[in-house]
Amino acid sequence: MSVRVLGPLEVWRGDRAESLGGVKQRALLAHLALHANTGVSLNQLVEALWPVSRPRSVVSNVRTYVWRLRQVLDDHLRTHGTGYVLAVSPQELDALLFDELVADARRRPDAALELLRQAESLWRGRPLEDLPDHDAWTPAIARLEEARLAATEHRLALQVERGDSAAAIPQLRALLAAHPYRESVCGQLVIALRQDNRRAEALQVYADMRARLADELGLEPGPALRDAQLAVLRGEPASAPIRQLPPSVSDFCGRAGGTEALVRALRRGSVSAPVAGVTGPPGVGKSTLAIRVAHLVGDHFPDGQLYVDLGGTAEQPRDAGDVLTELLHALGITGAGLPSQLTARAALYRSRLAGRRVLVVLDDAASVSQVVPLLPGDAGCAVLVTSRRRLSELPGALQVELRPFEPEEAAELLASIAGEDRVSAQPDEAAAIALACGHLPLAIRVAGARLAGRSGWSMQVLRERLVDESTRLRELSSGELAVRASFDLSIRQLPEQEFRAFVRLALPGPHDFPGWVVDTLLDEPGSEHLLDGLVDAGLLESCGADGIGQPRYRLHDLLRCHALELARSLPDRLSTVERMLRAWLWLAVTAARRLPVTFGTTIADVDRVAAPEHLLAEPVAWFEAERRTLCGAVDIAAAAGFDELAWQLAAACVPFFDLHSHYEDWARTHARALPCVRTAGNRAGEAVLLRGIAQVHIYRDEFAEAERDMLAARELYRAVGDERGQGTAIAGVGVIHRLRAEYERSMACYTEALRLLESAGDLHSVAHVRASIGAVHGALGSVEQAREWLTGARQLAADLGDTHREALVLVRLATLHRSTGEHEAELVSARRAVTILMDLTDERCTAFAQVELAEALISNGHPQAAHDLVEQALETYRRTGNREGEPAALRTLARAAGALDQLLLPYFQPR
Q1: Cβ atoms of residues 522 and 542 within 8 Å
Q2: Would the pTM count as exceeding 0.70?
Q3: What is the maximal distance between C-alpha atoms in the chain?
Q4: For 693-715, what is each residue's pLDDT tens digit?
Q5: Which residues bind DNA (predicted)?
Q6: Which long-range contacts (C-beta less than 8 Å, at least 24 apart) are formed by 471-478?
Q7: 20 to 30 Å CA-CA from 135: which of 149, 211, 697, 820?
């Protein structure tokens, strides 16, 4: 399939053009195509299609258009939240393909001319020229047309540069006629005419443009156009420019966004010399990118490029006065012509660059104070700086901060060094090597060099050598390339406190972490400011703010390996890890106690520690922000042998995992902590973990495994004398029997569980089991007994203030009301349950209640609303892997569809 917007709107399938319907339907497709791969809300579509007045059936109209377009677009047109998205690749949408070809042309100068011709060939006229104009489309269409003009200019400039002026001149004239104030086009035409020995015509073109600018806009031609005229008047080539740039690497790849931003910044007009900076951690490829960009913009600086290494990572960075001496020598100033004072040298340097167009590349800057004396004053020059430290004080500079490669870029670089055949033969091994390198360009370059020099190695050999974090940096060394040495250059410049923080920040593991952790790791309140210094040094990555507004950070994997090597010698390493874990545990326990009570969960009583309790104002949001870090904390506790901390951390997360259906995290954290508590002989902790694992098995419809683990947990609880634990475990067995429709056995388990829980005084769990007994009575047809048990359970939950438990009992009551034909009461109970559970953001239980509400809606004559509600519940069950509720939801969906007489419609496909 191919969608085309660069001209009349068309959709092609093979060699056949598809019918797209009326104007509004075509306009909807056009709007989605102009915002391809981005969600467009229903309100945005309505505003775009009916900007002035709209019919009452506007929402229905949009959905009808979408339904019809899906017959053409298949799964490319998808629902996205409350709106829609057109999901297409560049090969499926001409506007995306155009952008991709133009970007490739910038990255590949050798193939640029052909790529630009391919890009221009995609245009068939003005974008969407067969549709009425819409204000909502103006920015997107203007961007496309400007990009087309820029691509055409670029292509014609390349033709002139390669000596094909005769073919370019007519096209440049036509382009200038269409854009009479575009100086860049005029300049190219002047250059092309001069190259074609038509000097008089070239000067006339310049004179016409100058008169036009002066008479109509009151402007003089810019420096680039004036330079083109002067070149014609001189009639001879300029003196040899300065060319100090090191060669660009032949295997350069990736960095398209950074390259484009830097090229644009260095070529922009300004009242002073444009300045651009490239910063980032060691080994990320700052110098490689800077040199590449400097070569790409070489044509914009005909008087040459100056290059100097400032030695910012050396023990003693270079003095600005010495650097100015070197630069002035390159500009022809030697001996007595050199002033002795720094300010005088800087002034002379700026004077020598005045009126010239020179790019100055300052590599490996230590600080802003080192760079400022080296900045030219003339607007025709530009400066490109690289530094491991952020140079935020650099006046007016564009800062491009590099991060490690994307996986595709990393694979491309590895293939270019180690060999395309080796990488394509074992792509999974290559991806694992790149991942072990943290996608850091220097590390990948070292890994590729090791493979290139060892033809007998398989990719697997190097991958296995890189698995062990304790030896990984040793393996990433080849000749003069060494990752550890690059890191050391930055680390040795850290102040003492920042160094202490850097080493200890490896202890929280590979996940991102909040800023407050550094206080705990150093056991010194008010240490968070040290993180700013590490970020500025390129040794710590700032990940922005999380969902509760706290800043988050992470160490690059290889930097963390280096920090871990240093941390092994810390005398207080284990006590630091324990202090950190206890802070996490106290926060998790405190947050868990503010969530709905989860049946069967054991939340430990822990001592208060110094930790930021104010972050727990929204406990669900806090758990969501810290979810991965908490899972990692369980791993750290288990690996360190802290068995109590391991099971307590895992259990403290259960209320949140249950609320938002994070079953994978639930199962993994419990399974990770289990061997640790078993090794320690911690039977109480083992019982809690087995009970939790069994509950996940129930949600996944894995009843045999669930029963095995529930019974094992019961025996462990009995061995340690925990009545409450025994009660929750045997109640879990009762759930399994109930789901198997073994109601007599289920009732026996619930009765025993109720006795144990009442004896233990756990009233929340008592309410839960009473409701379960009521549900079993209902399944057995004992209506009045069911009503008595359920009503009592609801009253107890209400007395306890346990709204979550009350909502679940209301769902059971709704089922009972339906069986007795009390359909109005059924609807009231189900609606109340859904409202409570949605307010508590409990995804799993909300879906459970939504299915019951759908049944109530069918009973009360609202099958369409029921159908939509069950679809929502099914989406939740499938997304979270909850197989327990899916069969009942499908049965309800079928009943709703039957009531709507929809079973024969093609789009209704219950699964």
Answers
A1: no
A2: no
A3: 110
A4: 999 999 888 999 999 999 999 99
A5: 1-88
A6: 472/436, 472/558, 472/561, 473/558, 473/561, 473/562, 473/565, 475/450, 476/437, 476/443, 476/446, 476/447, 476/558, 477/446, 478/446, 478/449, 478/450, 478/453
A7: 149
